[in-house]
Amino acid sequence: MVYAPFYAPPQEIKTEVFARLPEHLRVKDRWSGWAFGKGNDFLHSFLEGPSFDRAGNLLVVDIPYGRILSISPKGEWSVVTEYDGWPNGLKIHRDGRIFIADHQRGIMQLDPGTGTVTPVLEKVRREGFKGTNDLLFAANGDLYFTDQGQTGLQDPSGRVYCLRGNGQVDCLLQNVPSPNGLALSPDEKTLFLAVTRANQIWRVPLHPDGSTSKVAAFITLTGGLAGPDGIAMDEQGGLAVAHCGLGTVWLFDRLGEPRYRIRSCEGISTTNLAFGGPDNRSLFIIESDSGTILRAEVPVAGQVMYSHR
C-alpha cells in the first residue's frame, strides 16, 4: 500500500470481470519450467502483457505455455499463436508488427497474419539476457525493454535497455533489483520504471544524447507479496500502477500523489494493465492467478500510445 501518514486515503474504484480464460484454454496436463517457485508446477496459465490492437482486440501473453491470446471487445477468446518460449511482455508497433519480451529468448516479433515468431534481439555483445520482461515504444521507434531475470534485493543487477531505430543497443541502467513495467512521460523526456522487489517506481531522465543521470525513486510503495509490476501513463502525466500481490491498481497524479485505489474483485495477482474502451477511460487489469481480465471505469483517460496512431 501507499505510505498512509503522508496522504489522505485515496478514493476507491471497483472492478468487474470483463473476461475469464475459458475452460478449454486452461492447460491441465502440461508442465512448464517457468512455474518453478510458483508453488504449483501445473499452472492453467499465467497471463501478462496486455495491449490493444487497432481493431480493439486485447492481446495478452500466457507465459508458461508460449501462447499469445486475443480477446475481442465482446470478451471472446482465441489463440493467435503458440511457440517455444516464455513470452512476458507485448507491444504493437505502428506498422502492425507485434513485439514480445520473452524471458527465455529475448526480444521477438510476431507476424499476426501467419502466427510466425522470429528473433529481433537475442544477445548484446555476444551475451544473452537474464530474462527480458516488458517493453515500450517511443514515438521515434526506439524500443525500451527491461531485463529482469531472477534479480532482486539479493542481486540488484537487472538492466534497462534501449534498442534504437538504427539497430544500436544502449544499456541505460544495470543496477536494478527487478526491473519490470515501463511508461514514458507525455513529452518522452522521462522514463518511468517499476522496480518490483524494491517496491518502487523509479524516475529515469532521458537526455538528448540517449544517456541518463540522477535516476530517482519517484514513488515508494509498501505491502503486497511482490510489488509494482505493469504500469501505464494517463493523458495528464499520471501513472496507473498494478501492485502485484496486493490485488490493487494505484492511480497517481503527475507529482506521484495517490488519488485512487482500484481493488480487484478476484485474486491479488494484479500483474499488468492497459487503458482501453471507446474513450480510453476503461482500465483493463490482468489478475494472473485466476486467468481473469478485470475492468474499471476511471476518471482520467489513458495516454494515446504511438503504436495505436
Look at the structure and name the CATH superfamily: TolB, C-terminal domain
Count of DSSP-assigned helices: 0
Q: In terms of per-residue confidence, which ranges show pLDDT below 50 for 5 or more consecutive residues?
A: none
Count of DSSP strands: 27
Going by CATH, the architecture would be 6 Propeller
The average pLDDT score comes to 93
Strands of the widest sheet, in order across it, are: 1-24-23-22-21
- Terminal CA distance reads 35 Å
Strand content: over 45%
Order of helices and strands: EEEEEEEEEEEEEEEEEEEEEEEEEEE
CATH class reads Mainly Beta
What are its keywords?
309 residues; globular; Neuraminidase; 4-stranded antiparallel sheet; 27 strands
